[in-house]
């Protein structure tokens, strides 16, 4: 590779990383079905129990 191509390639890579950092996250983290059920069960359990004194 000649010097210009190498430098251009490096600058493009840095620009791509910088723009990816600034972009909003495209997807939320994957949560498995079992984890979703567990979270729902915990939430319903918390709602069912009366507050203690």
Description of the molecule:
The protein has 53 residues and is an all-alpha fold. 68% of the residues lie in helices and 0% in strands. The chain contains two helices and no strands. The mean pLDDT is 87.
Tag the structure with descriptive keywords.
53 residues, mainly alpha, 2 helices, rod-shaped
| Measured distance between first and last alpha carbons | 73 Å
| β-strand number | 0
Taking all Cα atoms into account, the compactness measure Rg is 24 Å
Number of helical regions:
2
Q: Which helices and strands occur, and which strands form pairs?
A:
Elements: H1 3-22, H2 33-48
Briefly characterize the structure.
With 53 residues, this protein is mainly alpha-helical. It is built from 2 helices and no strands.
